[in-house]
Amino acid sequence: MKKLSALILFILFGSVLIAQPLKARIKIDIERTTGEIDSLVYGNFTEHLGRCIYGGIYDPSSPQADKTGFRKDVLLAAKDLHTSILRWPGGNFVSGYNWMDGIGPVAQRPKKKELAWNTIEPNIIGTDEFLQYAERMGTQPYIPVNLGTGTLDDARNWVEYCNSDTGTYYANLRAKHGRVTPYKVKYWGLGNEMDGWWQMGAKNAEDYGKYALQAAKLMKWVDPDIKLTLCGLSTWHSGTPDWNRAVLGIVKDYADYISLHYYFGDRTNNYLDYMASMKEPENEIKQTEGIINEIRFKHRIEKPIYIAFDEYNVWYRTGVEEKLEEKYDLQDALAIATFLNSLIRNAHIVKMANIAQLVNVIAPMMITNDKLWKQTIYYPLQLFASNCYGSSINSYVQSDTFNTAKYKGVPYLDVSSAYNATTQTVVINVVNRHPSKPIETAIENQYGMPDKKGIAYEVYSPGLKDENSVTEQKVKVIEKQFLVNGKIFNYTFPAHSFTQLVFKVKP
């Protein structure tokens, strides 16, 4: 009888216990800041690849095009992403690009064989078109120069064309093409992925470092106010840190940033492996920061050198044949949110990031001839860029963990926090990586008194493989209010979700 009673109790209550959410704890202190968040971490990237430029941002045949041929819907969606900096023209494309082919009357520009992506480049969109588009978007332009097949003269002359006042040859040429006022492009790159065998004009670390040093010297002589990004290791998975150490040791006095590239995805078709692998970008940040500090201390360099993730995204399904038109699902959105958490946690050293790319090609938005839809990854990027500014906060997180074959002790909750002193706003970004269980979390604010209400933005859908399309938006932002009852309050984060909590705290 006792055994039967126990069985009945288990049937009645055991399932309830199993269904209950996991428990966790997040503790923040707005005085424990780790670095200022630079708005440039919310950047984007456009390359002459597939349907990114032609058939993407520029498509005169579309009913969405304005009188200049640029798509109004793409421009609006880019503005809604609060795109802070826009990288162009590549990517691999830049290592074979002669910028002189893309200036002057369009009808007189040459069509050329493009070797990076095996296409014909019409040169309809060039320097002036891009820079004026960036102005319309309200974003900073970022131009990598060609250090593959390009010359030192190509590099310095491009800076002169963009930034010099009238009176010099290239400034006068720019004025002749209709732009008297200089563009004053502040951010320039010293090539692209020059360590890669796939790169036109690829070099070893010593050769690249010496060439980049001379290019940097000439470019800064033309305009001392520009900021330069040095090519760091492009494939951290398979490379060694020796490249970063070598090139930084050579270009140290002129480099303001060193670039890192990181592409990730569910390559093993294992959700937890995918989520756990998002520890790797943070490992790369820590390693690169150590090398930067080593070089600065060794050579007594006073000026800071920062990290720029000037290419990153989910990319594992498509290749050149599919023109890299990746279709994203919910788990990809969670990966992007986790990556952005890493950038915020390391805001003291990561000062620029550019998601690749803007439209169609491994992009947060896709288009048909007349319609645009937002992919799943659009929404975490939009939330971070809309709300997460000020100082990064060193958050304490206590959460259950999981193991995979490669990764051990991975917390289900991945968290970053920020405090904006100007608006007295706290932002807590939380990815619940558990595939099936919500996590009830006690959130403790140690300093200041929070307002009684906050706003929660949840990126969620029932299925991990749920995608968006031109006809259906399965994954989107769900906005709701929540109560803040004193310095400790509870919030339950849905399974496999990204949530951004926003509330006021008065010191």
CATH architecture of the largest domain: Alpha-Beta Barrel
Count of β-strands: 26
**How widely separated are the two ends?**
61 Å
Relative strand content: 25-35%
CATH superfamily of the largest domain: Glycosidases
SSE-based structural type: alpha/beta
Q: Helicity, in percent?
A: 25-40%
Mean pLDDT: 94
CATH topology of the largest domain: TIM Barrel
Instruction: Compute the CA-based radius of gyration.
Output: 24 Å
Describe the structure.
By secondary structure, this protein is of the alpha/beta class. It has two domains: 20-34 and 393-506, Golgi alpha-mannosidase II (Immunoglobulin-like, Sandwich); 38-387, TIM Barrel. 27% of the residues lie in helices and 27% in strands. It has eleven helices and 26 strands. The protein has helices spanning 2-19, 72-80, 127-137, 152-163, 169-176, 205-222, 242-251, 271-276, 280-299, 330-345, 378-387; strands at residues 22-28, 33-36, 43-45, 85-87, 112-114, 119-121, 140-145, 187-190, 227-230, 257-264, 306-314, 350-356, 365-367, 372-374, 391-393, 396-399, 401-402, 410-411, 413-420, 425-432, 439-445, 449-450, 453-460, 476-483, 488-493, 497-506. Strands 2, 15, 19, 20, 22, 23, 24 and 26 form an eight-stranded antiparallel beta sheet that branches. The protein has an eight-stranded parallel β-barrel with strand order 3-4-7-8-9-10-11-12, surrounded by six helices. A four-stranded mixed beta sheet has the order 16-1-21-25, with no helix packed on it. Mean pLDDT is 94; it is low at 1-18.
